[in-house]
What does this fold into?
Amino acid sequence: MPDIFDTEFEGKDIEIEDNRIEKGADINLTAKDPTLQRLHIGFGWDINSFDADTLDMDVSAFLLDKEGQTRADEDFVFYNNMEACEGGIRHDGDSRTGAGEGDDESIAIDLHSIPFDIVRVLFIISIYQGNFKEQNIGMVRNSYIRVINADTTHEILRYELKEELEGKKDIGLIVGALDREGPKWHFKSLGEPVAGGLVEAAERYGIIVGQS
It folds into this structure.
């Protein structure tokens, strides 16, 4: 799959206030921005190692019900299934190198499109064929997730991943989640390593995939 980069939010003079959060934070997005409807969830990273076999980081999302499970295969959004909720949740493309400025991968979300039986949208980063290539998330630096109001380009929060990655031998990390609380949406920063990467995470949430 060719590299695709979302340039809509690059080069924007986004005023960063006190919006940086740490692991374990629970941010009421609706309270911070009552106008919020469309989100840009941006992810960025750089690679420590410049081996011939380039590390390929991927972003995925799981749409979970109150039981903490996906309802169907379509609730797993990743490089082989780019949309869910009839396009209301959309993966904006696969970067295979993490090179360049700005977000390396992103997911667009229209909160109004998410069915009411979905109570959590969980975000994970993982290394493609990490076990086979003997690569891990400890080889990644300058990684972050940020949440932006897509209509105003205002950056609501940014979660920078440092200790969550440094020295880790896992091939995946559950970064955070959007959680529904009635009409409100929260963002929770989780930073939970997943030793088996995407395969382990997918099986945990009711999906069977054949790719690590």
About this structure: The first helix runs from residue 29 to 32. The longest strand covers residues 184-194. Confidence is low (pLDDT under 50) at residues 1-16.
